C-alpha cells in the first residue's frame, strides 16, 4: 500500500479502531497497561448476524513500523494469535496478516455453531 510503515503501524496498533475495517470485530477498548505495549490487554467486541461476543486480548509484539501481534482468549480459553507484519516497499509498505487458530477440538466444533468460524 502507498503509506508510510509507521503510519500503518499506528492504525493497526490502535485497536479501538478495529471495527472500521473488520468484517467481524466491532470495536475494542484498552483494559490495562500502556495502550499498544507488550503485555497490555484489551477487550475485543465481535458480531455475527445472530450472536455477539467479547474476547480478552494480550499484546505479544509491538514493533513500531514493523510488527503488531496479540493473543486472544474467550471464556479464559485460547482462541487465536494474530500477527500483522509491515515490510517497507518502494512507495509504501506491504502488510501481511496471519492468524493462528488455538482452539481445542471441542471449542472448534461448538464455535462453528455460533461464529461460523470453521476449523481448517
UniProtKB/TrEMBL annotation:
CDD domains reported in the protein's UniProt record: SRPBCC (cd07812)
Origin superkingdom: Bacteria
Protein name, as recorded: Cyclase/dehydrase
Organism: Streptomyces himastatinicus ATCC 53653
Amino acid at each position: 500500500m502507498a503509506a508510510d510503515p509507521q503510519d500503518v503501524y499506528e492504525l493497526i496498533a490502535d485497536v479501538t479502531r478495529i471495527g472500521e475495517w473488520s468484517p467481524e470485530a466491532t470495536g475494542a477498548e484498552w483494559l490495562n497497561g500502556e495502550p499498544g505495549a507488550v503485555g497490555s490487554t484489551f477487550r475485543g467486541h465481535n458480531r455475527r448476524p445472530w450472536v455477539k461476543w467479547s474476547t480478552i486480548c494480550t499484546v505479544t509484539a509491538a514493533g513500531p513500523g514493523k510488527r503488531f501481534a496479540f493473543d486472544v482468549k474467550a471464556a479464559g480459553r485460547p482462541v487465536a494469535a494474530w500477527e500483522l507484519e509491515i515490510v517497507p516497499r518502494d512507495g509504501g509498505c506491504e502488510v501481511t496478516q496471519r492468524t493462528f487458530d488455538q482452539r481445542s477440538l471441542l471449542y472448534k466444533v461448538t464455535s462453528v455453531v455460533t461464529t461460523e468460524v470453521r476449523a481448517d
